[in-house]
Amino acid sequence: MSIEKLIRLQSKNSRTVVGLMSGTSCDGIDACLIKIEGSGLTTKVDFIGFETYPYSDEIREMILRSSKRETGSVDLVCRLNFTLGKLFANSVRRIAEKISIPLSEIDLVGSHGHTVYHLPASKGIVNINEGSTLQIGEPSVIAQETGITTIADFRTRDIAVGGDGAPLVPYTDFILLGRDGVCRAIQNIGGIANVALLPGDCDINKVIAFDSGPGNMVIDRFAEKITNGRAKFDKDGALASRGRPDQHFLDRLCAHPFVTKQPPKSTGREDFGIDFADNLYEEMKQKRLNDSDAIATVTAFTAKSISDSYRNFIQPLHRIEEVVLGGGGVHNRTLMKFLGDYLPCMRIRQTDDFGIPADAKEAMSFALLANETVYGTPANIPSSTGAKEKVVLGKIILGS
Q1: Which CATH number fits domain 2-166+359-397: 3.20.20.300, 3.90.1640.30, 3.50.50.60, 3.30.420.40?
Q2: Counting beta carbons within 10 angstroms of the beta carbon of residue 272, is it exposed (0 to 12), middle (13 to 18) or buried (19 or more)?
Q3: Is the pLDDT of residue 396 over 90?
């Protein structure tokens, strides 16, 4: 019966799929509804709708506590796994209601979950060299609550074959934005910033992809500190626009061991989370840096770590013709200005120019990865993750 259900999904002319994403910014659940025809290089995508469903302050605080070694406990992670599963399921219902489509007409859910902790092999602990990662938001709850076949936990199989489990989105970048003769850097700026380089003569084995460093994560925390919790992010980059980056701190931040590390590499809150941001903020205050200059500095850090990663790890091999931006960072005007300053000779576009809303891109990507799982298509890129081989990603929980 289970095989027959998957065969029926494969044999459909098109599949209606919801992609779910909860990123390192911990602001909410992104839900993207798309229609997919085919798979792999023959994939065609029609965007239907997108929405972000914000976390309550209580849930956000629980997620942040669960992601820190000092405050994350086994019982907290265990309970939060199922709580988030229900919230993810509710997001599927809400996006379906928004689009006025019955749940029975949705074929598949692809859920990234929320990353509690990410330890690639390069960050092994005490005599344990194997990589590990943990995403929560129990997919069995999603499938049970919605009745829809759900595919989740995409990162673990790549780690099982020696990869970092990240980045995974470059596969869908290749499908959606590659293969047209233009050498593009597809730059996502979420909580973490990551890039996928698609050469003009692109075949999937030539894709270069890695996390470049922090995206919005440190900026968000500085905005929260500066406003005493009234703001969770720097809206439009307004706070940073009032200041000037401090060159001493900027140079030191851009020398961070992760930023200068050779790819493949991936990161998260373990490197650039609350502890990193709070310690940095306190040090800046001790050096009498005002709040405007402090947040301008970390905003410039995100932009310069991106440009440095191009200069050090991509441009020696490829001439980038254009940069295509996605993720929530595109709404930060000060960050966009800094990025333009650091990349003066490159054409900068947004994924919206290609019919992909910037905020929706990552959630859309996990809908596409779920589709590849149904077809049994390997969707990791070993040159990007460091994996020993290509593998099929995700675990399948059949709907009712």
Answers
A1: 3.30.420.40
A2: buried
A3: yes
